[in-house]
């Protein structure tokens, strides 16, 4: 009977400690034999006095002795997990799942790479064939015949831009000054002011302006031998802004303008012969005016003069995107801790969103301060607010990522 009661007590203890069974120890076979011997000896009367036997039985029932335990072999007496070969039959189901997952992840990554990089690679594919899509503005102010002097410069420019070679170098939008005047008046601008405005607002990559009465003015300078007359400054002006995209301007736009200028040079003998047809060139001054080449006057409205700008305008954007991604990984641990707390789901989503914005707000400031530290001027366009504009653009860029 004592043995049965001891087993009941042990079972009750096992049920109470079921949640922490990993900490319990199973008795060794030697301990089990010793416990059985104790149970048998307790059932045999040792003392002659029956009262002593009775008290001994009561002590055994009320205060069972807990035997020392041996190291466990696993949960509830199970054997420890055995390791198998990766190529064994037992591991085949897991191996198939790994293979499927491996193929799926690589397929997704390949799709992402093909989608994203194809756009970038494609932007450079046959790029020379796409130069004809560069929008260029041309305003011809030399359009009137004055005192029998034809608009030779204006006619020559229009003829040059109609050539197939010119059409392959850009999309030339040609306006007579009389046509363009109405567009300028709509914005309360002069002809020159409206040309500059359209280039600055990135409606065109560049603009060629043949100045008004250029042919007549050149003829008069030739007749009078006016050596102070600068034919290049008073004939053709080209307006562009390198600051819009210094790589594109230097690589694609400016070279196309130089091609047009080369074709323009090839037409100058015909033009000058036409303008000097009724002029007797005798003096040295007249010969000097007649012999000077007429170049394009290149006017870069926003020149690229600080090489430090190459960093934020090129690799800086890449670093900005990388930092935006790494910010997510750096804060993964605190975000996980917040997720394990009993916080409402909607509050957790708001916490993630707001915390990311605060991080981007601070990190974008650091990007701006780095550029400012190397003495880059932010006052060219927006004055003293230029740094705030740059900071805002950096913040919006990181937030968009």
From TrEMBL:
It holds the Pfam family DUF3533. The keyword Membrane applies. Keywords: Membrane, Transmembrane, Transmembrane helix. It comes from Candida parapsilosis. Residues 108-401 form the DUF3533 domain. The lineage of its organism: Eukaryota, Fungi, Dikarya, Ascomycota, Saccharomycotina. GO terms for cellular component: membrane. Residues 1-80 are annotated as: Disordered. Residues 1-27 have a biased composition (Basic and acidic residues). The chain crosses the membrane at residues 102-122, 311-332, 353-376. The keyword Membrane applies. InterPro entries: DUF3533 (IPR022703), MNNG_permease-like (IPR053001). It comes from the Eukaryota. Residues 51-72 have a biased composition (Polar residues). This is DUF3533 domain-containing protein. PANTHER family: NITROSOGUANIDINE RESISTANCE PROTEIN SNG1 (PTHR34814).
